[in-house]
Amino acid sequence: MTEKKFEITQHRLVPKHSVLSEKEVTTLLKNYSLKDLPKMHLTDPIIETLKAKEGDIIRIERNSLTAGKSVFYRRVIANA
Amino acid sequence: MAKKEEITEEVKEKTEELKEKEDEVLTPEEKNILKEALSRETIESTQQYITKKVKGVVFGVLSPKMIKKMSTAKIVTPELYDKEGYPVDGGLMDIRLGVIDPGLKCKTCGSKLKECIGHFGYIELARPVFHIKFVRHIYDGLRCTCRECGRILMAEDKIKKTIKEYKRIKEKEGLEALRRLTRSTISPLKSVSKCPHCKAKQEKIFLVKPLMFKEDEKKLTSIQVRARLERIPDEDSEVLGLNPKVVRPEWTVLTVLPIPPVTVRPSITLESGERSEDDLTHKLGDIVRINQRLFENINAGAPETIIEDLWDLLQYHVTTFFDNNIPQLPPARHRGGQPLKTITERISSKEGRIRHNLAGKRTNFCARTVISPDPMLGINYVGVPFIVAMKVTVPEVVNEWNMNYLKKFVQTGPKEYPGANYIVRPDGKKKKVTEETKEAMLEELQPGYKVERHLMDGDITIFNRQPSLHRMSMMCHKVKVLPYKTLRLNPVVCAPYNADFDGDEMNLHVPQTEESRAEAEILMQVQTQIVSPGYGLSVIGCLQDAISGNFILTRDLTLEREKAVELLCAVGITDFKKLPNKKTITGKEIFSMLLPDDLDFQGASKAGEPVLIEKGILKEGVMDQKTIGGEGEGLLLRSLHKQYGPDATIEILQRILRLGIEVLLQRGFTVSYSETELPPETVEEINKTLNVAEEDVQKVIQSFHDGSLETFPGRTLKETLEMKIVEVLNKARNLCGSIIKKTINKKTHISMMAESGARGNILNVVQMSACVGQQVLSGRRIEKGFSKRTLACFKQGDLSPEARGFVRSSFKKGLNPREFFFHSITGRDGLMDTALRTPKSGYLYRRLANAMQDLKVEYDGSVRDAANRIIQFSYGEDGLDVSKTESGKINIKKIIQMA
Q: Is the same domain home to B142 and B224?
C-alpha cells in the first residue's frame, strides 16, 4: 500500500489553527496582560502541518455554540 | 470549647515546627540585616509595622531529638490520677502537659485554664516501631538502597544529575511535577539487583501488609530497618524525594513518641462525678502500659518470644494510635465494642476536623424550622414566628435621637414583644435584660450603648434552603412577624429555593451590622434575583392558581363595572383613571390596569397565539405560563424587568398574582370527575384508533413470524420488530391526544389548566379519559418477569401489545389486573430511579462546584483561575453576561424599537 497521509486539517472536528506573527504575539500578551498562556505539546499532530516551533503561539478558531466562532491561544512547549 | 483548644494545639504544633526551620532558612545577609536593625540607637526611628508575608510552608518529620526538645514531661506510668484524684507526675494527665481543670495552674507556663494551650510530652519506646503513615516511604527507602552500604542503587554521576533535574523541575513546574518525577525516578531502582557502589547483591524485599517487611522470607525487625535507613547518606535521600534538612529517613521509624497535650484530649466529668477519659488518652494508656512491660521484660532477660509478642503489641497500639482504620488490622475498641477515634479519625472524613470544623461553619443569630406557604405575604417578605423573633435579635446603637425609642424595648423586657434581650456597653460587655435589672439599665443607657432588640417587621434577614446550589438559594427577605411556629414564604419564591411544603425546613440569618444589612439588601433581595444568571429569564413568576386565574380573566371574563372595581381594590389598585368608562368591563381591560402605561410587548401564548400589549393595554391574547409563569418562561415578566427594573417588576408580579387568586376566589375553581367524560362519538373514535393500531401490530408480528419483515439497517430483526410496534402504538396514543384536544370542552377546568400551563398537560388528560398507553422500562416495552413472557397468564413468546405492557384502558375506566401490574412496575421503577439518582447527581454537582469555585471573570473579559491562568479567553466564548440577555441571546430588534 502506498503511504497516504490523513490530512487532519480537513477533518470537520479539527478547528482552524494558525501561527501568530511576532507583532500579534506582543499585542495579545499586552491585551491580556499575560505572562503565560495555555500550552500545547510539540508532538500535537497539528504542529506538523503548521511547521511551528517551540515557543510559538497558535491561534485556534473553534466553532462555538454560544458565540458562533471563538478564539483560543496556546503556546507550543516541548514534551515533558 | 474543648474542640477549639484542640485546633489551636494543632496549629501550634505546626508553627513550632516551622520556627525551628526558620533559623536554618535565614541566609547570612538576612541575619546581618536583622543585627543592624537591632543595633540602631533609637528604637523610635526604626519603629514600624512589621508586616510579614508567608513565603512558603515546609513540611517535615519530627526527629527524636526535636520531640524531646519540645516536650515538657517524660511519661513513664499508665496511671492517670492518684487516690485524691490528683494527676500523677509522669502520668498521661501530668499537669506539666497543660490544664483542663478550672482553678489549676499549668506547671509549665503558669497560666490558667483556657490561657494555657498545653504542652507536649514524650515516651521513650523500649523498641522502635514503624509509623503507619510512613510505611510506603520506608518500603521505598528499603528497596531503593543497598542492603550492605546503604547507598542508593544509582550510579554516582547519575545521582548528581538527578538532583539537578529535581531542582530544575521544582522551580519550573512546581511541586506536583517534582513529585511525579521523583516517583518515576525511584521506580526502576526497585528492581536493581546489584549495588553500583559496593557491588553487593540485592535481595528482593516484600511488604506484608499492613506492617511487616520480609527479605528473603526472613522478617526485618524495625531495629534492622531503622539501621538500614540510618545508613542512607543525605544526598542519596534527596533522590528519594526527601529533604534531609527536615526529614531523615530513619525518623519514620519511631524511637520516641510525642504525647499530645491534655488540652487535645480533655477528660469529661460525668454527672456522677466519675471521670471519662478521651479516646486518645485510652490509647496512650495502652501504649505506655505495654511499653513499660516491654522494658521490664527486656531488663529481666525474658525469652525472645515473649519480647517479640510484646513488641508486636506495642507496634499495634502505636499504629492504631495514629490510625484506627487500617484495612488488615482489627480496630482498637472500647469495652462496649465501639471503635476508638484516634488521630486520623479526628482529621479525616465528613465528621473530621477539616470538613466538620474548618470548612463547616456555624453561626449565631439564625433560625430553622418547617416552612409553610402564605400567598398574602409580600414576595420579598418572610413570616417569622414570635418565638423566633423574641430569641433572635438585632443590635441597635443608641444615640441622642433614638434613645427614647430604644428605651421602650428595654422597658418591655425580654419576655414581651417587642422587647430587648441584651444591652452592650461601649467596652463590649454584654448585659442580660431581666425584670429585675431593667430599671437600672434604663438609667445606665446612653449614647454609644447598643440595645439588642427583638426582630421586628421590616428587618433585613437572609433566607436559605439547602442544598444551596445557585445564588438564588440564599436571598434577602424582610421580616414580617407572625403567630404560630413555621417560617412563612410566598409560594412564588419556591422555585428559586426549590422548596415545597411537605416538611421542608429552611434557615434564617439575621445580619448584625449596618454594613452587612446594606449589602444584603442591595445585592441579595428577592427582586434583584428575578432574572436567573443561568438562562437569562425570570426564575420567579406566577404559579398554578395565579396562572389559571389570569388565564380565565383574560380569556373569558366580562364583569360588571362594580365587580371589576372590587377585584382591582382587592389587588391594591385605587386609581381608576385607566379603567374604561363602560358598564361592563372585559378581563383584558382589568388586567391592563396592572401594567405600566408605556409598556409595549409582543409575544405568544402557550397555544401559539400572539399576545400583544400596546401602551400598557392588553389588546390581544391571553395570559398563561409563557407570559407570566416562572422558571425560564414568563417573557412578559422579563421585559417588565428590562424596562422598569427589579422593584417595579416585583410590584407588578405581586399584583398579577393577587389578581389571579382573587379571580379564582370570586369565580370558584374546581376539577370534577365528569370533566374527563368524553362524548360517545369521541369514545367510538378513540376505540377505533386503538383497534386499528392493535391490528397493525398483529400484522407486523405476523410478518416477523413468516419472515417477510424487513430489517432496518444496523438492527437485528427483533429490534426492528420492537421499533415498529412501539412506533405504531405511540402513533395511536398521539392520535388519541389530538382527538381529545380537538373535542375537549375548552370551558372545563381541566383543559384550562392544561392549556394555560398552570398544571398538567394534554397527555395527562388523555391518560385519564382515553388510554394510559405503553409502559416503558429502561427504554423498552416490558420484557422482564418469567422466561419469554411477562406474566404467567400469557403464552411464551407473546409479543402482542397487551402482553408487553400496553395499557389500553384509561384511568377513569380503570385498569385490568394485568395492566395494573404493568403500570405499577413502571411506577415503582420511577420511584427507585429518583431515590437513587438524587444523591448521585448531588455528588456530581458538588465535585463540579468545587473544581470551579475560584474561577473568575477578569475586567478584560477572560476567565481565570486562582493562579491567574486563563481558562477561557472570553467568558462563555461570547463574553455575554447571561443575566443581561434574554435566554442567552440579545434581542436586537427590541433594542432598536425601544430606542
A: yes
